[in-house]
Write a structure and sequence with these properties.
265 residues, UDP-N-acetylmuramoyl-L-alanine:D-glutamate ligase, five-stranded parallel beta sheet, three-stranded antiparallel beta sheet, 8 helices, 37% helix
Length: 265
């Protein structure tokens, strides 16, 4: 059975984002999650209060041991906070899993505003990791940081997606949750055209981890053999329902309800 997803990302002590959200998402969608932890964070719904780095060699060792034993059908990257971490991950994937699809979530800033990527690492992410991406899943702020473009409209999202494909990405899912207005669109840009996934804004602050969750849901679909479009469509619906049924934990940006697919009705 396919569905093995290797998640290479940082942890979130609150359970709402990062490795914890990724594992929940993959499991809720009937996949199998393995991990290579890149950093430990101390955080809750109000912000990130500390980051503890994992040694570079140990990150590479985690990847090697998973790939060579359990195997992997798709790889999802999240928080890779420094050029050294990015280059180590790129090296490991190039050596150990050159033909495995890669979903890149270009984590730059946490929901509460804390930086999760060193400023000088953005160029490394763009130049070294983006070319490995089967699909990259930036929100509009991340797409702006990676392209230098200003994104204020759907056309701008399209242009940014095309610019990232010119950088080597196989496809780009530009997420529109940070755009103004009540009608939001996520735009999937591929070499064969584009698909728009729209919906009304949900009036809630409980959106912590939506980026991690979306990327992991897409990765699970790819790992299970879905087409990219179908994987994105299922991920879009899954995340929307997870926001709608969020448990409203915490006093800040609360977590989603990742388990809505398996909860008893």
């Amino acid at each position: 059975m396919k569905g093995r997803v290797l998640i290479i990302a940082g942890s979130d002590s609150s359970g709402g984002a990062g490795i914890q959200a990724d594992i929940k998402t993959v499991t809720a969608l009937n996949g199998y999650a393995a991990t290579a932890v890149t950093a430990l964070t101390a955080q809750n719904t109000t912000g990130v209060y500390g980051i503890h780095e994992v040694p570079i060699d140990f990150i590479s060792e985690q990847i090697r041991l998973v790939v060579t034993d359990i195997g992997v059908d798709c790889i999802k990257t999240g928080m890779l906070h420094s050029p050294e971490v990015i280059n180590a991950v790129v090296g490991a994937l190039t050596e150990l899993a050159p033909d495995v699809p890669v979903v890149v979530d270009p984590v730059i800033v946490a929901k509460g505003g804390a930086s999760l990527l060193q400023d000088h690492a953005i160029a490394t992410l763009r130049d070294a990791l983006v070319p490995l991406a089967t699909v990259i899943t930036p929100n509009t702020h991340e797409a702006e940081a990676l392209t230098g473009l200003s994104i204020r409209s759907l056309d701008d999202m399209r242009v940014a997606g095309q610019a990232l494909m010119e950088r080597g990405a196989g496809a780009v899912l530009v997420k529109g949750g940070h755009m103004p207005g009540d009608d939001l669109t996520d735009l999937l840009v591929t070499a064969d055209g584009e698909n728009a996934f729209g919906g009304r804004r949900i009036d809630t602050v409980h959106t912590h981890g939506t980026g991690c969750t979306t990327a992991s849901a897409v990765a699970t679909g790819i790992a299970q053999g879905l087409s990219l479009r179908d994987a994105v469509a299922r991920a879009h619906d899954y995340v929307r329902k997870a926001i709608e049924t969020a448990p409203e934990f915490g006093s800040g940006h609360g977590p989603l309800n990742h388990a809505h697919t398996v909860q008893q009705r």
